[in-house]
Design brief:
0% strand; 3 helices; single chain
């Protein structure tokens, strides 16, 4: 039975390679196979973890980009509103100045007319 196991292990490799390899006891061959499988399993696990981490980073980056766009949009909106309010305020001040100027000119006119009436009398 031990012979057949050795045959299976050496038959798994191409003839040229198996001839060059020193014949190891079955227990050592089994140990090497076991270690290789363990290493492969660990490597796959690490790859899986790295992929998972990359996915999370991409997800976070997308979320951050969305948030940035949202903030930019709100900032633009606020700036537009401020500009609009400023224009309204300026318009209101201009109207008030015109009204004040009108009242002042009317008062001056009235004073002049009263002065003329006083001169005539």
């Amino acid at each position: 039975m031990s012979d057949s196991k050795e045959n299976i292990i050496t038959n798994a490799l191409p003839n040229e390679v198996s001839e060059k390899l020193p014949k190891l006891p079955i227990s050592q061959q089994k140990e090497r196979i076991k270690n290789a499988k363990k290493q492969t399993k660990n490597s796959k696990k690490k790859v899986k973890e790295v992929k998972k981490q990359q996915k999370q980073e991409i997800k976070k980056a997308k979320k951050d980009m969305k948030e940035t766009k949202k903030v930019e949009k709100e900032t633009k909106k606020l700036a537009k509103k401020e500009l609009k309010d400023e224009k309204k305020m300026t318009k209101g001040l201009v109207k008030a100045d015109k009204k004040e100027a009108k009242i002042s000119s009317k008062a001056i006119k009235d004073v002049k007319q009263n002065a003329k009436k006083a001169d005539l009398n």
